[in-house]
Design goal:
Structural class: alpha/beta
CATH architecture: 4-Layer Sandwich
Order of helices and strands: EEEHEHHEHEEEEEHEHEHEE
Distance between the termini: 5 Å
Helix content: 10-25%
Number of domains: 1
Shape: globular
Largest sheet: 7 strands, mixed
Number of helices: 7
CATH superfamily: Ribonuclease Z/Hydroxyacylglutathione hydrolase-like
Length: about 250
């Protein structure tokens, strides 16, 4: 598998795009989160017309809002280009994603006039096989319904924490993963604000024992390099600081 970090920041970030990842297993591609501003990031890597699925960890705008932009891109591309494949688009997410989609249709009526179908599925403690990927989801603790995903292909696994507090659920879904993409949003002094701190990330990786950890979703008040050093103290594997448009092989 190949992972591209489209966005490694948050709504407050100046230098980093909001949360979004592209995962590929050869011919198949999926997005995990697609926060505002990430359509432009995606276009630097692949043609957005090649994207037919989006897995949302939760519905906050820094993880979900550019879904509207992606659908608009697909609609207008079909107007100005010929021979574009009309494939169903698949949207997955936690409880509330169907209502979320209905609300954006109401706000942006053009979505009702798409010439392709949009399939929407709400997940919880779920397992699905999708485009050659095996996807496991598990609810985690956040201020809104939220999921972590474990995605496997050809014996390799990558876990996306999404946004979460320190909890047993994120530890258990991350056990022995080849790569754990772990939010590290806030400094330790802000522990308890519905996000992980470096100290809490250290506890998770020490218990889950993934092979590699990719720290991401940095608010401006956390120092990514300092967070990396703190997590390294608790972990013998490789710790990587996510950067926008970084590529990793899994």
């Amino acid at each position: 598998m190949k992972l591209t970090v489209l966005g490694s920041g948050t709504i407050l970030s100046k230098e980093r795009s909001t949360a979004a990842f592209l995962l590929e297993n050869g011919s198949s591609k999926m997005l995990i989160d697609f926060g505002l501003g990430n359509l432009r990031q995606l276009q630097k890597v692949v043609d957005p017309l090649e994207i037919f699925s989006l897995f949302l960890t939760h519905l906050h705008p820094d993880h979900s809002l550019d879904l509207v932009s992606l659908l608009a891109f697909k609609k207008h591309s079909k107007i100005f280009k010929q021979g574009i494949e009309k494939r169903q688009f698949h949207l997955f997410g936690p409880s509330g994603v169907k209502e979320f989609y209905a609300s954006i249709v109401k706000a942006f009526p053009f979505i009702e006039r798409l010439d392709f179908d949009v399939s929407i599925k709400e997940l919880s403690l779920s397992k699905i096989d999708f485009f050659g990927f095996n996807v496991k989801s598990r609810p985690v603790r956040h201020s809104v319904p939220a999921l972590a995903y474990r995605i496997e292909h050809c014996g390799k696994s990558v876990v996306f924490s999404g946004d979460t507090r320190y909890c047993e659920e994120i530890k258990s879904i991350s056990e022995n993963a080849d790569l754990l993409v772990l939010e590290c949003s806030l400094p330790d002094k802000m522990q308890g604000f519905e996000h992980l701190t470096p100290k809490e990330c250290s506890l998770i990786v020490a218990q889950a024992k993934p092979k590699k950890v990719l720290l991401t979703h940095f608010y401006p008040m956390v120092n990514p390099l300092k967070a990396k050093r703190e997590v390294e103290k608790a972990f013998s594997g490789e710790v990587i600081v996510a950067e926008d448009l970084m590529e990793l092989k899994i």
